[in-house]
Design brief:
The complex is a heterodimer of chains A (223) and B (447).
Chain A (H helix, E strand, L loop, with lengths): L28 H12 L8 H12 L4 H11 L3 H8 L13 E6 L2 H5 L2 H12 L12 E6 L11 E3 L4 E2 L4 H12 L7 E4 L1 H6 L10 E4 L11
Parallel strand pairs in A: 1-2, 5-6
Antiparallel strand pairs in A: 1-3, 3-4
Helix pairs in contact in A: 2-3, 3-4
Chain B lengths: L29 H6 L4 H8 L5 H11 L11 H6 L10 E6 L8 H8 L1 H14 L4 E6 L4 H17 L14 E6 L9 H8 L23 E5 H13 L1 H5 L2 E2 L2 E2 L1 E8 L5 E6 L4 H8 L9 E5 L8 E2 L10 H7 L7 E6 L4 H15 L5 H18 L5 H14 L7 H15 L1 H7 L3 E4 L5 E5 L3
Parallel strand pairs in B: 1-2, 1-4, 2-3, 7-11
Antiparallel strand pairs in B: 5-6, 7-8, 9-10, 9-11, 12-13
The chains are: A alpha/beta (223), B alpha/beta (447).
The structure holds flavin mononucleotide, iron/sulfur cluster and FE2/S2 (inorganic) cluster.
Chain lengths: 223, 447
């Protein structure tokens, strides 16, 4: 029988031990200038909180309470407000993640085109379940909702950055190998089918890499 | 297949010339965009006395342009709701949150023709006398955001955005705002809450954004693709635009087609395309020569259509409404005969449960129970009566919440069950009814 009375997740610890020391918890002058620039783009300092949290996440890797407080203080807004925002959005990491976060889309089109096959392959390959991080701290796997690349399903995103389209197990192998060597995948332009006749496929000469939309694979797990 | 000799509502679509994504190499670069007539529409409205701000709004209204973000509301009419100019700030939000499952067209527009979007934003700002536009792009589109920021910088440097645009005295800033992963931020009032730096809980309407929007000031929200149509309307005239595609829902559309087709992708064609043409002609038919089972025409919240329901149906609001669905975002998902509708629906309900902001009880609890019940059926543990319980639950959710997410969650459940009832029943155990003496009895066998 499926569990229809799922356990309510425990409340987070309100005062966990800080991860970062006082000395680490500072913004450089350049970062402060960026925050000031963001602040000027909104009529209230609160408007800049999402940009501020993004900046802090780029710097610290994730957002434990003391980092959220640092952002709030720098913007001059209430800690509670910044905390509320940080915990509303899924892309803000509230706990330490692997160096590379593999966000595999299993939603909608990706579900029907092998998203779960890719997720399960990765889980087996890395020996972890979704939501977990490998022991060496390199990889975290997450199952995510539609990333807006449904035509090139199945697909994944690496650490809130580049998309990897038209996934196959070979492609996943190559991706993991290159990430182990510290190489992020390039930005890939997926060319429009109509351009293939009219523009030889690729319309951007500055594209780091291109791919076409292809016939999606048959899913093993979910049809 | 009727009317398949090119003469559909979409006209002779085989010879259609693209305008949103015309075949021009490197059109995403400002210099190339300008070489191909870019920013002439903006220059015209700013300098030609004929183009009073009101006249721009009237032109857009006359073009018949309807929003491409999902609801299909008349864009010109929406603009005309903005109150007369006073000393308060006014805002435009360009909605690039694109999170509706099955939708991936705004991303391609931002990648391949971002200046058309910027130009549309600037003309819209002029038409409504707005001095600040926030372009809200979902956080996952980080790469596309940085590409657009680069182009926006060039626009500032050239004096096309910012103070005194093209020396005309008109000023507008564009700020690109990066989201952080929440489907609900695509809902217009949630998007405004998010911009204000709050948890993105949708607001109760009325008041509508034109009365009380961002920071309480008059605001208009339009989708990326909607605004990209605006420079085309100015350059070619409302009549030209109104003449493309379906009469009551005209214009070019970016169809994002995914799923079990041979050639998925984003295609630009007029509205009013036959669904069958899109699947069999444009996308090269069903993968592996399989038979078609179902189509979701415009993103996950639009009701699914069975293969036998799409004959003669065209992609425009009227035809799709008659067929029992909606145009939505024109992000079409195609499913072949092997598709398991129960596990498909299970994943859809999971999405809405995950994305409910939790503000309204019918939605927060309802989406959870939709997922639980469909999961139970998918795992073979459901009972026949669960199907009616699900439909009842949908009724409890529809129209009873702050925003339309609850409806968007209920519609796929209602229609997938109604249109594939046997498939659901076949997965269910017979329902157990209490008998008069209190003992349960097996009553209805699975059909
Ligand atoms: C739950 C929900 C999610 C939405 N997501 C989006 C979205 O991602 N992008 C979008 O343009 N509109 C989205 N909308 C529609 C917007 O609320 C709004 O109607 C639209 O942006 C208006 O622009 P338009 O008139 O140009 O279509 C969503 C609506 C709801 C109820
Ligand atoms: S309907 Fe759902 S998503 Fe919309 S405000 Fe209510 S709880 Fe939030
Ligand atoms: S369903 Fe996976 S990207 Fe849209």
């Amino acid at each position: 029988m499926a569990d229809i009375t799922k356990e309510i997740s425990p409340l987070p610890d309100r005062t966990p031990e800080p991860v970062f020391s006082k000395d680490e918890l500072v913004f450089t002058d350049e970062e402060k200038a960026r925050l000031a620039r963001y602040k000027a783009q909104y009529p209230t300092p609160e408007g800049a909180v999402m940009r501020g949290l993004w900046l802090a996440q780029e710097k610290f890797g994730f957002l434990p309470p003391e980092v959220i407080r640092l952002v709030a203080d720098e913007l001059g807004i209430a800690y509670a407000q910044a905390y509320g925002v940080a915990t509303f959005y899924t892309q803000y990491y509230k706990k330490k993640m692997g160096r590379y976060v593999l966000d595999v889309c299993t939603c909608f089109s990706c579900q029907l085109c092998g998203g779960y096959d890719m997720l399960h392959y990765l889980e087996e390959k890395l020996g972890i379940h979704k939501g977990e991080t490998t022991e060496d701290g390199l990889f975290t796997i997450q199952e995510v909702e539609c990333l807006g690349a449904c035509g090139s399903a199945p697909m994944l995103q690496v650490t809130n950055g580049p998309y990897v389209h038209n996934l196959t197990t070979e492609k996943l192998d190559a991706l993991i190998d290159s990430l182990r060597e510290g190489r992020m995948p390039p930005f890939v332009s997926v060319t429009l089918p109509q351009d293939e006749q009219e523009l030889d496929g690729n319309r951007r000469s500055d594209a780091e890499a291109t791919e076409a939309y292809v016939t999606p694979p048959v899913s093993e797990t979910v049809k | 297949m009727e009317a398949n000799n090119g003469q559909t509502k979409a006209g002779d679509w085989r010879t259609y010339q693209r305008v949103l994504l015309p075949p021009v190499k490197d059109l995403h670069r400002l210099d190339v965009y300008e070489q191909h007539g870019g920013y002439t529409a903006l220059r015209t409205v700013l300098t030609d006395a004929r183009w009073e701000p009101k006249a721009v709004t009237e032109e857009v209204k006359a073009s018949g342009l309807r929003g491409r973000g999902g609801a299909g509301f008349s864009t010109g009419l929406k603009w005309s709701f903005m109150p007369p100019v006073d000393d308060r700030p006014r805002y435009l939000c360009c909605n690039g949150d694109e999170s509706e499952p099955g939708t991936f067209k705004d991303r391609q527009l931002m990648e391949y023709n971002p200046h058309l979007v910027f130009e549309g934003i600037l003309i819209a700002c002029y038409a409504m006398s707005i001095n600040t536009c926030y372009l809200y792009v979902r956080g996952e589109y980080a790469d596309w955001i940085s590409h657009m920021e680069r182009e926006l910088e060039k626009l500032y440097a050239k004096g096309y955005v910012g103070e005194n645009i093209m020396g005309t005295g008109f000023s507008t800033d564009i700020v690109i705002h990066k989201g952080a992963g929440a489907y609900i931020c695509g809902e217009e009032s949630s998007l405004m809450e998010s911009l204000e730096g709050k948890r993105a809980y949708p607001r109760i309407k009325p008041p509508f954004p034109a009365q009380k929007g961002l920071w309480g000031y008059p605001t208009t929200i339009n989708n990326v693709e909607t605004l990209a149509c605006v420079p085309l309307i100015i350059n070619n005239g409302a009549a030209w635009y109104a003449g493309i595609g379906a009469e009551r829902h005209p214009g070019p559309v970016l169809y994002g087609i995914s799923g079990h087709v041979n050639k998925p992708g984003v295609y630009e064609y007029p509205t009013g395309m036959l669904i069958t043409d899109l699947i069999y002609e444009v996308c090269g038919g069903i993968r592996g020569g399989k038979k078609l089972k179902a189509v979701v025409p415009g993103g996950s919240s639009t009701p699914v259509l069975r293969a036998d329901q799409i004959e003669g149906v065209t992609m425009d609001a009227e035809s799709l409404r008659e067929a029992g669905s909606m145009m939505g975002t024109a992000g079409m998902l195609v499913m072949d005969e092997d598709t398991d509708m129960v596990s498909f629906l299970r994943r859809v309900t999971h999405f809405y449960h995950h994305e409910s902001c939790g503000q309204c009880t019918p939605c927060r609890e309802g989406t959870g129970w939709l997922e639980n019940l469909v999961t139970r059926i998918d795992e073979g543990e459901g009972h026949l009566r669960d199907l009616d319980l699900l439909l009842d639950l949908c009724t409890q959710m529809e129209g009873r919440t702050v925003c339309a997410l609850a409806d968007a969650a209920a519609w796929p459940v209602r229609h997938t069950i109604q249109r594939f009832r046997e498939e659901f029943e076949a997965r269910c155990k017979p329902s157990v009814f209490p008998t008069g003496d209190g003992a349960p009895a097996e009553a209805v066998p699975a059909s």
